Amino acid sequence: MSSENTSEFIGLVQSAFSSEGVLARNTSHFQPREGQTEMALAVAKTLQTGGSLVVEAGTGVGKTFAYLVPALLSGERVLLSTATKTLQDQLFSRDLPQLVKVLRLPLKIALLKGRSSYLCQQRLQTHGREHNLSDKGSIKTLGLVREWAKTTQTGDLAELVGLEERSALWPLITSSRENCLGSTCPEHKACFVNAARKQALSADIVVINHHLFFADLSVKESGMAELLPSVRVVIFDEAHQLNETGTQFLGEQLSIAQLLDLVRDILASGLTTAAGLCDWQKICGDFEKSVRDFRLCIGTQTSSSRLRWTELIPEGVDGDEWQSSLESLHTAFNNAISALDTVSELAPEFPRLSERVTQAKRTLKHFASSPKQDQVRWVEIGQMARLVEAPLDIALVVQEKMLGLKNEQQKTSSLNEINSDLNADSNGSFDSTDSQQISLPRSWIFTSATLGNDETLSWFTKPCGLESSQILQVQSPFDYPNQALLYIPKDMVKPSDPKHSFEVCELAKEIINRLGGRTLVLTTTNRALKFIGDELENYYSQNNEKGVIEVLVQGNLPKRFLMDRFRSSLDCPSGSGDSSATKGAVLVATASFWEGFDVPGDALQAVIIDKLPFPPPTDPLVEARCNRIEREGGSSFNEYSVPEVAVALKQGAGRLIRRESDTGVLVICDSRLMSTGYGRRLIKGLPPMKHEEQMQGLLSFLEQMNESREQID
Ligand code: SF4
User: Fold this and answer.
1) What DSSP character marks residue 496?
2) What pTM did the predictor assign?
């Protein structure tokens, strides 16, 4: 871009966000916000120069428009990645079409999901059979799928109401990288996965998700490898999840479910296409038995946990049983490969199945040797089990494969130079023969509401290899001192005391009764979730004389239902049907509810956090990360545990105030916040709310909130 074009572009972006600009004229509720304009201009500058920009934009800044407007106005091809399918769908169906219309730009937008989101016609024909399904519900849904398959334009299974992602039918009618027949598929021309990729390749803006991005970075099969070389702008929203998503995909994995799928596919193809040529029942029966014995040898527990695995064998597993299970799996793999190879000429799926077994054999061999020091290995236990080996973070991969940083000398050079190198050298990351190679440096934008607890955002930038990036922190425009109160109960017992959950419950009842529900209780452990959930359910089932307060507990109902029910608790009366007797809801939850749960308005006015959310020290990934810091001479407590708590607290606290008119109390039932140095630093990292330790102060604030709500009502 010439300097004239440069200043013209910056002027265009600035004017879009002004009080008389295109957004103010054409979108409802738009108000110019200093922070939003600041972020938009920083994004615009990075789009011109290339390089990487990390932006932490507090709640209410309006970060989506702040990156979308400059990206759309730049005229560049843009790849936009989100952590969740919900935001992916919202950007594709709401924000992008709205802005394209407002800005009057003739841009083509595409949505690209992972292959398991699309119907596979080949598998629908070969595996989508009634005899492969054991329950009546799935058999009925199969009929719906067949009807819908005749008319769908996209093959995106999200269109099909009534098909659950957990349904037994799903893996039978979708493809995986392993079972897709590729160019040998009879349905190749009509394939929905291929069609979605073609559309993405010809679009100006492509919306993907982090899972897809990293899956492709690791195995280059989702179509992204062709796409990225012709894209000059890459934006990651919800970037705080990048490291965790990336580490999941960048290692090795072998799951019991994957092996059982393989057995099922071999049996189905063998019986359908090569019946009588091999004893498929025996081969697959032995194969399945060896997989199930392998699962049993790992242990009989089914509750979700992670088994440490720092030596040759996972902890707690009998060495002899492990060895003999590996040998029997090895034999089952060899028998399956021999059988499949004898019929390989009969249909394209047989060589593909043989390759899948060979790959599983290779991965098993990898897991039969000791783990490397820069990787962490564990067994993920659930109903099934999964062997996992992952890097401790994504820093190296981001630097080498995304930013093009290849050696120590380059690590010290600026990222802008690196991007120039990458773009000048098409042999850099994401090699491609695509003729649309870009000529300007690539721009990488990373953004989220919470990216760290210091000014360098090191919680995010260090594990993501982005320490040399330009950093911008944009504060939330909310008036926290007047909108919110932080209450840390002074007299509550310590979190380690057995009475702690009971006291949290008693305080929660006091708040819930005064507010009439409107409370989210976030716990750090499943045990506290159960205790507090049961206690509140019992209490409110017996004490409803002042009105119905609905108690929702994570795990009792699907997450989406709980979220929707809580959000609409004030509009949609529950219980007796007497709306005058109905009050709001209480949601008791843990883990995934700490972030991304958006409840603007009066349905949520109190967030109660039971204790500081320290990462579990026995988790293999946490332990390996802490060990590495200690080995390098650092303090794992200060450099890993405290920043993790700070970010989780910010996310939990972020549930409270979602818009300018919201008010609320944040209660953290952990005296360590006041009695330790790190606790006081954690308080400073929270939004600047009024701070109170006396019960009377809390009660007055609750009363004020009730009064102002009643005045508005
Ligand atoms: S090419 Fe792969 S995904 Fe497409 S229809 Fe064939 S098997 Fe299914």
Assistant:
1) T
2) 0.85
